[in-house]
Amino acid sequence: MALFKSIALIPAAGMGKRMGASINKQYLQLGSLPIVARTISVFEKSSLIDAIYLVIPAEEIPYCREHIVDACGFTKVVAIVPGGKERQNSVMNGLNAMRASVSDNDVILIHDGVRPMVTEAMLNESIDVASKRHGALVAVPVKDTIKTVRDGIVVCTPERGELWQAQTPQSFRFGIILSAHLSAEADGFKGTDDASLVERTGGEVCIIRGDYSNIKITTPEDLVMAEAYLTGMES
To answer: In this predicted structure, what is the pLDDT of residue 1?
Structure first.
């Protein structure tokens, strides 16, 4: 029996302007389910996940509760939390919402609500590593050559073997990620992801090999790719 709980924190408070749809991207259909419901279902089905916190735009909470959580019968969703101005603020809102019910050693898996192709194997390894280290970051090696550019001019070409594309979940013990967020908030620091907040406080974040199918759906092209991946998985 685990001496800690594993809790999913799923921010889905983005407006999805790049998708160009009439509804927010998390509610678009992917196969037979809305994108965010397909994401939640992976955590719902995992025997290692004890609870799920959703972070949703405040005005969408009634819709999400009725059409996603209740309609799909998700029993592990213990709270739907209003989102903040930026993703970092939304995650902080989620962490604050769970403060009274978690311990510092509980593992928090922070995962994009529109990244539905995550696998249970990724969750399992993330929990195992985060419970022992400062953090666990699902990522994949970059495929293309990357250029550093300033004012339209190439400055350098980083060694590709050292470059990884960050995905989610990004997992940490609660005490570590809360402290990192509080430090960033106090200093007015805005990170590009949660791992960057832990990194700036001296934490060592370990890479977990992800999969190129674990895409974040932000454009119509991403949705087409996700549908192709889903078809391949179900065939």
So the answer is: 55
